[in-house]
Write a structure and sequence with these properties.
Layout lengths: L10 E3 H8 L3 H9 L7 E2 L6 E4 L2 H13 L4 H12 L3 H35 L8 E6 H11 L23 E7 L2 E7 L3 E8 L2 E4 L10 E6 H13 L5 E7 L2 E6 L2 E6 L9 H4 L8 E2 L3 H4 L7 E6 L2 E4 L2 H5 L5 E3 L1 H9 L6 E3 L7 E4 L4 E5 L10
Length: 372
């Protein structure tokens, strides 16, 4: 950048400009040689550089732009545009560089995920892996059907029974023959969703007709996948891959990958595969009747439908089951407009089914837990 004609006739030494701008004297000499910030005067005998007062602004801009990694040619362009008063054009150059930084950060995050996946693979040699195709809308629905049952907060370790519960802060994904299952539980409730498999595009190390291929994924990753599937066309195909130490979903050509959570997910099949002793009953309209502010609520089956017991009836034990009303409200919310319940007794889990791609199970509350 050529030296400007300053309205202030004073000239500053290189040391003064360095102190005012944050650039070192050696850096100012370098930028002079590169033609980016040329001093207003150079003594022919001593070689001492003198700068116009107006050049302090340019030096400050130069220091700021270099700190964020702007290439020297673009820095020179910004300084030239600013010197001639075209601040809008200078700002456009800065904004374009900012966008490159944002894009680069996204790329770096993806590379970090891939690196973590590679690191996790060492501990999973020989584990089963598979790749299947499902519809975006059905996978989004299956993930939404189980989210409410994920254990909240930070991973919990050292439970009273000695079990590490960190794995419950994620979602279990299973490829079981002709469907992908999503499972979540916080030990008080359990939810299962599923999406039909359109085709097994690749079976890497597992026969899908045998044992399921499973992985527990972080909730944040499941949320990102669900959001990407919602943004895609409902019938568009997405590819789910479960491999040792990692999981990935490709939506609209974009891979969303994650390392899996360590730990053993509870065996949910023993709960959901039991044949109920009673027929399902209609639970339509039940959600609006639930007193969610109470700790527990009693349910009574009458004439093929479920009713909420009053406090006197619940206290007297004239109920079929006691449950947490807030938990039940969340389960009904994902069950769709025509939910049904299966009540097998006061000490048996309560099953909630509906029109959606899944169902949930709530553990009953002991009678002594009855709230006022």
């Amino acid at each position: 950048m050529p030296a400007p004609v300053a309205s202030d006739d004073r000239l500053l030494t290189i040391g003064e400009v360095a102190r005012r701008s944050g650039l070192t004297a050696s850096a100012l000499r370098f930028y002079d040689r590169e033609g980016v910030l040329v001093p207003a005067d150079v003594d022919a005998l001593t070689g001492y550089r003198r700068y116009a007062v107006a050049q302090v602004r340019a030096a400050r801009l130069l220091a700021s732009l270099r700190r964020v990694g702007m290439p020297l040619a673009e820095v020179a362009l910004v300084l030239d545009e600013d010197a001639r008063g075209a601040t809008g054009a200078a700002a456009d150059v800065v904004t374009a560089h900012e966008q490159r930084l944002v894009d680069g950060l996204a790329d770096a995050r993806r590379e970090i995920v891939r690196t973590l996946v590679l690191l996790a693979e060492r501990d999973a040699v020989g584990a089963a892996a598979c790749r299947v195709t499902v519809r975006a809308g059905e996978l989004a629905t299956a993930l939404a059907a189980v989210r409410f049952a994920v254990a909240p907060g930070e991973p919990v370790a050292g439970a009273p029974d000695g079990t590490d519960l960190s794995v419950l802060t994620g979602v279990l994904l299973e490829v079981c023959g002709d469907e992908v299952r999503c499972v979540a539980t916080d030990r008080y409730r359990l939810a299962v969703g599923w999406a039909p498999v359109l085709e097994p595009t690749a079976v890497l190390t597992a026969d899908l007709s045998d044992e399921p291929v499973a992985a527990v994924v972080p909730l944040g990753w499941a949320d990102r996948v669900a959001a990407a599937c919602v943004d895609a066309e409902p019938d568009s195909h997405v590819v789910l891959e479960l491999a040792p130490g990692r999981a990935g979903v490709t939506v609209d050509g974009e891979l969303v990958a994650t390392p899996v959570l360590r730990g053993s997910f509870p065996d949910y099949r023993s709960i959901v595969s039991t044949d109920p002793a009673r027929e399902p009953v209609d639970a339509g309209g039940l959600s609006a009747l639930l007193p969610v502010e109470r700790e527990t609520v009693g349910l009574v089956v009458r004439d093929g439908s479920v009713q909420v017991a009053d406090r006197d009836g619940a206290a007297a034990g004239v109920v079929d089951v006691l449950v947490d009303p807030e938990f039940l409200h969340e389960a009904l919310a994902v069950a769709g407009p025509r939910p049904t319940l299966v009540l097998d007794g006061p000490r048996r889990p309560l099953a909630v089914r509906g029109d959606g791609a899944g169902f949930s199970v709530l553990m009953p509350v002991a009678p002594e837990g009855l709230g006022a």
